[in-house]
TrEMBL record:
Protein name listed in UniProt: Adenylate kinase
Bilayer-spanning residue ranges: none
Family, similarity comment: Belongs to the adenylate kinase family.
Gene (UniProt): adk
Record organism: candidate division TA06 bacterium DG_26
Keyword Nucleotide-binding attributed: yes
Amino acid sequence: MRISFLGPPGSGKGTQAERLSKEFGIPHIATGDILRDTIRKDTSLGKKVKAYLGMGRLVPDDIITELILEKIDKAEDFLIDGFPRTLAQAERLEKTAPIGILLFFQVSEATIVSRLAQRRICPSCGRVYNLTSDPPIIAGVCDRCGRSLIVREDDRETTVKRRLEVYRGETLPLIEYYERKGTLRYLDAEGDPDTVYEKIKRIVCGDDNSEV
Ligand code: AP5
């Protein structure tokens, strides 16, 4: 089972990937988390990556491809969220480990903006919250490790705007690429997390034909 989640920022890829990975025991490769780990290491690569994320731009293909393919080499099955995001990345992935399902998360821009404005993360364990749909038990504090929650650096309004522009320019063209390959599936990701998850399971288990 090789699955990739594609969609705009805040469409729920990370939230749903974590659930699916847990229930089916598929290794989850979270591209954004890998990059944020790289930043924390504070190497010259980490500094470079930080600059791209801070600007809301994509990390260059050669850097991200190397980081991701290293993980994929070790996994027969995988669930990856956030890769590929450019045609060059897609072509490279197809050569190394062709994916079986590319699930395209569809949400309105209003939903994206609202979800990202409400997102809070734990700087220590990385747990993701939402002030409306998934709040912590104690306001502002991580349920798992007790640390104070923060706003993700790239969730500030101007950076979100830039990330959306980059998504439209560089990532949306992948839809056509995967349509041609016959592996694309559309997902209405507007509902609450449980509803969306049920739809994903139906698609992944082959009980739903939400394809092109
Ligand atoms: P990354 O961390 O992957 O960011 P992203 O793709 O922009 O996606 P997000 O993490 O913002 O959102 P998500 O879709 O995972 O939503 P989530 O589940 O958190 O990448 C960050 C950066 O790294 C990129 O901008 C780029 O610079 C770089 N990068 C990454 N991959 C790269 C690549 N391949 N090539 C080059 N550069 C790359 O949900 C969002 C919020 O909504 C949360 O608060 C959540 O609790 C809530 N929520 C989720 N689902 C629902 C729901 N159904 N209803 C209500 N609330 C919900």
